[in-house]
Every structure is written in structure tokens, then in C-alpha cells.
Amino acid sequence: SPALVWFRQDLRLADNPALAALDGRPALLVYVLDDEAAGAWAHGGAQRWWLHHSLASLTADLAARGASLHLARGPATRIIPQLATAIGASEVIAGRLYEPWARSRDAAIAEALQAEGRKLSLHTSSLLHEPHRIRTGTGKPYSVYTPFSRALFALGEPPPPLPTPARIETLAHPGLPLEALELLPKRDWAREFPQHWQPGEAGAAARIKAFSLLNRYDATRNLPGIPGTSGLSPHLRFGEISPRQLWHAARAAGVTGDATFLKEILWREFAYHLLWHRPELPEAPLQQSFANFPWQPDAKLLRAWQRGQTGYPIVDAGMRQLWRSGWMHNRVRMITASFLVKHLLQPWQAGEAWFWDTLLDGDLASNAASWQWVAGCGADAAPYFRVFAPVLQGEKFDADGAYVRRWVPEIAGLPDKFLHKPWEAPEIILRGANIRLGVDYPRPVMDHGQGRARALAAYAEMRGAA
Ligand code: FAD
């Protein structure tokens, strides 16, 4: 009997265990846009842009094989059982999801299908390992990254990726046209995205091929001014490439042992491990003591940060890269996030929400785990009292200013010496570079020393109250 393959976060044909499980059976291939179930964590704006183009790409890849994708919109708890009944499917096959809302939705769907004698089969598709299978020696979930990553390395190499099925026989069942999902923004703030990205499986493959610095990753990964990281995160987010494919591609390119690049893939696994075992991760601090942290919510400061108008060039460059390209370099994510929660004392959840809406790779597990890490309230987090100095960070990781000059062009004329601290430039230098501080480019919204002292005082207050 036919089956239903439900695409979710695995919008690819290669190494897709759900497709492989068909084993020649005819199937209805389905994607459901289900904003209701996800609630506050429905796809953010940037992710919706990506999803539109990724679905277009998947549809075209399937069409080239004489196959089709059925699109639907609404609660999957209703749509999936209905479609399964309509085509007489005995089985619904999908890649497993780990978001708390998706887990409860899958449980409800499994139950509804079972009541009709059908089953829901979930495969490991977007992670290397199932988070519930990884345990410490004493049988507990991990809360510290290093032993977690060691345990994963000790499991050996992941199995080789599955090939693209030679033939996929799909059932025709009229669905919605892609436009009916209304994924593209009404106001075209995404107009620069196509310069940076090619969503879809082919785009992911091209991206790996183009990542020529992979073997110099240790030296290049912290430099935002060069393409020193893979830029694969949005492709991974939508499953246009699996972590297993990426792992083996890295090996094939000469990456050996427990290289840093592989460890980064394991940071992603760790974030999912945390989300699985601590489903409150996206909303609440994992460290209880932070529940009463004296944040000072301030709409004006938050807005200055969001718009890249803080007066700190490295912070502003990052926030503008995010807005214009839908992505930000990891080093700068750490700097901008630290600046928000420490210098500006804004709750990390406000930054997390902004990243969720603007990042093409917005990923519930990695985003939440990273924000908690920076804010010092997560598992295995950076201690809160370690406050990044934005000027020193800029001078160290963007020494030639290539990154700041690209994204904050109004200060590009400053000499390197003052590029990361325009407020220290003598008037004659500013005039020579055509900059009126406070007019063309803001003065710092917060003095570094003052911001640092205020952050430490807030931390002491929290500890005192505990
Ligand atoms: P590469 O350096 O090429 O790494 C390869 C892959 O490893 C990445 O694509 C990613 O899947 C994974 N990876 C690398 N670093 C990390 C990390 N620290 N944590 C988890 N996975 C990692 N990553 C997301 O995918 N989605 C998010 O929403 C997200 N939010 C973040 C928020 C903050 C505040 C911070 C500090 C980091 C966040 N990250 C997030 C992690 C990291 O910044 C990105 O994964 C990385 O910048 C993606 O670029 P890349 O593909 O070039 O990475």
C-alpha cells in the first residue's frame, strides 16, 4: 500500500531516510506549513523567505524526476491524518523533530493515525545521533559540552550518507500552489538575500564545494572579514544537507581526527541534546539563580542594537550584516549578544527573539543554547562576569577593518587605529574622514567601563538575592 512522506526539516532528496524507507512504494510527498502548532516559534521572517525558495527548489528537483510535492497549510494534526486516509496510506514517514511543540504534535498525530490502523515512523534525519540515546556513565543527560563531544567521537564515524533514490513514484493529489503559503515578505527587506544565498539542495552542495578554507578552519573561523566559515547553517537548518553528509564531505576534504570543524557540528548536536532534555531552554534560564536577574528592559536601547546604531562599530557591523544578509558571523554573534545582555542589560530573550526573526539559520536549539551560553545562564555557559570588550574584540578579530568597513561604510574612511573606537579619534581625523560623530555615526549608547560595572553590579545583586 502507498505511504505518505512528510517533509519537515529535511528538504532534500539525498541522504533522506524517509525517502529511503519507501523502498519502491508509491507515496504522497507532503509539506505542511503549520504556524499554529509552533506558536511563538513559528518560522521567523527570514526563515520564511528561505523556506519559500527551498520548497521551490525541492519541487523542481522532484519534477525533474517526474515526481511532485503536495503543499498544505494549517494544523498538521488535522491535515496529515486526513491525507493519509485520502490516499489509503498505511504509514506516514518523516524525519524526527526535537522542538517541544513538534514533539507533542507528533505524539498527537501518531495517536490519531494509530486509531485508524496506520502508523507514524520517525527516522533520524537532521542529527547524527538521537538526543535521548546519548547518556553519561551514570545514565544522565549531558550538561557539559566537552564530555558530550568526547562521547560522540567515541561512537565512531557516522554511517555513510544514503544515495538519492533512483526512482520516486509519487501519487498525484492536488495541493496548494507555493504562493498560497504566503512566505515572502510584503515589504521587500530581503532584496539583498539572493546575492548571498542559493536555498536548496544544489545550493548546499555548491556551498560545500566553495568552502576552500575548510582545511584552515582553525586559523580562519574567527575572522568575520573573510569567508572563513562554511556558511552552511541555513542549509543545515532546513535539512538541504544532513550533518552526516557534511561530516563525510569534511572527511573527504582532508579533515582528520576530532578537528574543530567537526566539533562545531557537535555543538549543534549538543544544543539539540539540551533542548530535548530541558525543553524550557528557549524561554527560561537553565540556571535557576538567573530567574531573578535584574534586567533593565529599555525599548530605545534594544532598538539601537537591532538597527546597528550602538556606536560600537563591530557591534553595528554585525547587526547590519544580520539585517541585510540574514546571517551573522559566529564571533560577531557572540560580541553582539554579549553587548546586549551585559552592556545594555537587556534580557537575553529579547535578543533571541530578534535573531529568530532575522536569521535565515534561526534554529530553536542552537539559538536558545547560544543565547543562554552568552548570558551565562545556560548549561556549561561562559561565566556572566566575563564581559567582552567590543573595542578589543574588534581590534583583535577585524584588525584590518575589512568587516566593519563593509557593513558600516559611513566610517570606512577612518584609519585602522580609530576604526573600532571613532569617539577617540581627534577632530581633525574625523573631519578628514568626513564624519560628524553623533550625526553621521552615533556616539556610543553606553560607555564600556560604565556598562561593564553596571553589568557586574547586576550580577552581584542577583547573587546576593539568591
Ligand atoms: P561553520 O563555522 O561553518 O560551522 C559548521 C556548522 O556547525 C554550522 O553551520 C552550524 O550548524 C554548526 N555550528 C557552528 N558553530 C555552532 C555553535 N556555536 N552552536 C551550534 N552549532 C554550531 N546557529 C544556528 O545554526 N542557528 C541559530 O539560530 C544560531 N543562533 C546563535 C545565536 C548566538 C547568540 C550565537 C553566539 C550563536 C548562534 N548560532 C546559531 C551558532 C553559530 O553562530 C552558527 O551556527 C554559525 O555562525 C553558522 O555559520 P557557519 O555555517 O558558517 O558555521
Automatic annotation (TrEMBL):
The keyword Flavoprotein applies. GO terms for molecular function: deoxyribodipyrimidine photo-lyase activity. Residues 1-128 form the Photolyase/cryptochrome alpha/beta domain. Its cofactor is FAD; (6R)-5,10-methylene-5,6,7,8-tetrahydrofolate. It is an enzyme of class 4 (lyase). Keywords: Chromophore, FAD, Flavoprotein, Lyase. Pfam families: DNA_photolyase (PF00875), FAD_binding_7 (PF03441). Gene3D superfamilies: 1.25.40.80, DNA Cyclobutane Dipyrimidine Photolyase, subunit A, domain 3, HUPs. Its EC number is 4.1.99.3. PANTHER family: CRYPTOCHROME (PTHR11455), CRYPTOCHROME CIRCADIAN CLOCK 5 ISOFORM X1 (PTHR11455:SF9). Belongs to the DNA photolyase family. This is Deoxyribodipyrimidine photo-lyase. It comes from Sediminicoccus rosea.
